[in-house]
Fold:
Amino acid sequence: MRFAVLASGNGSNFEAIVKAWEAGEIPGELAMVFANHHEAFVLQRANKHQIPAFSFTVKEQGGKEAYEAALLELLQEQAIDFVILAGYLRILSKDIIEAFPKRILNIHPSLLPSFPGLHGIQEAFDYGVKITGVTVHYVDCGLDTGPIVAQEAVLVEKADTLASLEAKIHQVEHQLYPKVIAECLKKESNS
Ligand code: GRF
Structure:
């Protein structure tokens, strides 16, 4: 099973995934990383771990439709079976979603269906929730929708600031995502 990681920025989740994969905790082949910005730090992380890294932008491809087609082509050329979104800040096209039925995972920093979108941690914090957390889900055509695979709660304590809550959530993400990816890939290769 060959899997790809799609990311847009820092790539701390990619780092947790690649380390778990190098330690033999995730089966299959971490075959490639794709970023939709050439300067995304995740690309440097991929190079450091000698994982093939690709990037192109919507603008370079001449628009959204051509970009999505080029991304699907890249995933197919690389014979990818499973796609992991890790801070990929775009919604995938219907064509890509349909090419990987129940084979695309995303991680979101809130307890979905609460606080979908780009600012899940901040919105939960501002709302004053006492419990938030992390969700791993299969991707469908919506924004942070799709069947939930795993969730882990994070308590918001009195002393928490937005920064301390972010740190707690990322710590949980880095434990949870590699574990869930390993389980899903094992299930897929046995099916
Ligand atoms: C994570 O909080 C993830 O839940 C969200 O985007 C963030 C990516 O962080 N989808 P990083 O790039 O993995 O550090």
In short: Residues 7, 9-13, 86-87, 107-109, 173 surround 5-O-phosphono-beta-D-ribofuranosylamine (CB under 6 Å). The helical segments are 12-22, 41-48, 58-61, 64-77, 94-99, 120-127, 162-190.
